[in-house]
Inverse folding.
């Protein structure tokens, strides 16, 4: 199994950070590392419980920001990481960008819209 990383830009409060995100379609929200969200001036707006891959439950703060990737952009909820957390690109942001992860070759593709 291989991992997929993409370079994305996060914007808030007139500031920006460009990070290498691990694409994790199993994660609900994208995760912005601790130092990056502090630099961006993000402030916690909500809090949610998450379950890690090993079954451990953790609570993390959420905030909203602008996310840009490959000439696409969206406003999105993100998880505010704690020290040591790495950047993740989650399903909610992927859907906002109208992208989907091809599981066979691990590439991002434009999402096909559905009205039904």
């Amino acid at each position: 199994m291989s991992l997929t990383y993409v370079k994305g830009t996060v914007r808030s409060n007139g500031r920006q950070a460009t990070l290498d995100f691990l694409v994790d379609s199993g994660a609900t929200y994208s995760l912005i590392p601790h130092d990056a969200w502090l630099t961006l001036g993000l402030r916690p707006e909500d809090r949610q419980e998450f379950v890690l891959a090993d079954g451990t439950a953790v609570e993390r703060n959420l905030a909203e920001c602008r996310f840009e990737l490959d000439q696409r952009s969206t406003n999105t909820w993100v998880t505010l990481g704690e020290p040591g957390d790495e950047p993740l690109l989650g399903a909610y942001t992927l859907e906002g960008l109208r992208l989907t992860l091809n599981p066979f070759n691990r590439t991002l593709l434009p999402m096909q819209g559905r009205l039904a």
About this structure: The first strand starts at residue 5 and ends at 12. The radius of gyration is 14 Å. The chain has one domain: 5-110. The mean pLDDT is 94.
